[in-house]
Amino acid sequence: MSTKINFTLREQDIPEQWYNLLADFPEPLPPPLHPGTKQPVPAEALLAIFPENLVKQEMCPDRWVPIPEEVRDVYALWRPTPLLRAVRFEKALQTPAHIYYKYEGASPAGSHKPNTAVAQAYFNKVAGTKRLATETGAGQWGSALALGCKLFGLECNVYMVKVSYEQKPYRKMLMHTWGATVHPSPSDQTEYGRKLLKEDPKCPGSLGIAISEAIEDTVKHPDTKYSLGSVLNHVCLHQTVVGQEAIRQMEMAGEEPDAIIGCVGGGSNFAGLSFPFIQKKLKENKKYRIVAVEPTACPSMTKGKLEYDFGDTAETTPLLFMYTLGHKFMPPPIHAGGLRYHGMAPMVSHAAKLGLMEAEAYHQTKIFEAGVLFARSEGIVPAPESAHAIAAVVKQAIEAREAGRKRVILFNLSGHGMLDLGAYEAYLSGKLQDV
Ligand SMILES: Cc1ncc(COP(=O)(O)O)c(C=O)c1O
């Protein structure tokens, strides 16, 4: 073989611990606050919606958190995920840059989301939870949690943003296949949903609204807990298997990345790839350029403010210190449904504030252009969310070409786009607009 492109780890190489960046931040992360008292929220206050073991993880100061064997056993269904060098993509871009991607689309749900869904289902099972309630945008998270719940014998109740429920039926079908119940949000299942439907029966819904419904469902049903697919510290923690594997795989490739790139919705896949590299930046003084990529239509990091805000529209969550567009922000209906969230994970926001990383935003026609070029050279059709990272890779690869300089670029291909082909069709037939 002329150039080695596939860097494969073995089952026993699945990480045994998650990495917690909270232990290494040079300044402590501002805590979540109670909206009334503006005082830090005590752990007990979170027990109404989360099990105690996950509340402990959310506030855990330890650098390394052991991954239970039961979770590693399930991870082994698709982990370690591949790391590939995109030589054909490099050629298409005529760049001297070496481009590597960590492929999380290899999971059964087709994205990085099961890394935390499986862990959350496991910890809930151990804590005696019988049923989980959650929200989902376009359905990536909901389908991942449906799978996690099925594997650990829990019921799963999903509030899916109505516009996606109607326009993107396949993820709903996937959730049904894995045994979950799915409601279009706003729904008639909760008081908040009924209120919104009365005001506007055609309300298309948003992630913020669906979160409010899932939380209301949790507090009103016995043996039910709430599960979130991004934003929170323990979700970012669970995703760090991605970066830990990638570090070993880049060593196998004999290269050190100059740039590390991931798309950001709530921030978890980006955190998963980048936090283990940020540790190396802090401890080994590495000079990586770490870039989070978001849609111009929902620019929480590039246009938002760093301040305390609610995580949901109905103002039921604690206040989180994060980059935010405001919890009432209603993002336009772009195709990367998983990136339509008004805020950013507090840990990612803190890393940006400390100058450990930066952010860029791209329009959707640009990201589909990059996604199609990638599909035509590497084969994999990227999820529209992941195509944001690819647009940033293209920019850096072209800069390298123009400067005549080799660069090593690593990005997270967080999911495949096989259930997003309608969006590709809209792009290819010239129907896609920038909003
Ligand atoms: C494929 C894919 N990538 C990225 C994201 C963004 O989520 P997060 O920022 O939490 O990683 C999503 C969200 O649904 C997704 O489905």
What's the rounded overall pLDDT mean?
96
Output the number of helix runs: 17
> How many DSSP E strands?
15
Poorly predicted runs are none
Going across the biggest sheet, name each strand in turn.
1-4-5-15-10-11-14
- Report helical residue fraction: 40-55%
Question: What ligands can be seen in this structure?
Answer: pyridoxal-5'-phosphate
Rounded Rg: 20 Å
Distance between the terminal alpha carbons, to the nearest Å?
45 Å
Largest sheet: 7 strands, mixed
Overall outline: globular
Approximate strand percentage = 15-25%
The chain-level structural class is alpha/beta
Walkthrough of the structure:
By secondary structure, this protein is of the alpha/beta class. The chain is 40% helix and 17% strand. The strands form four sheets. The protein has a seven-stranded mixed beta sheet, sandwiched between helices. α11 packs across α12. The model has no long low-confidence stretch (mean pLDDT 96). Pyridoxal-5'-phosphate binds at residues 111, 137, 140-141, 230, 263-270, 338-339, 383, 385-386, 414-415.
Short description:
The chain is an alpha/beta fold and 435 residues long. The protein has 17 helices and 15 strands.
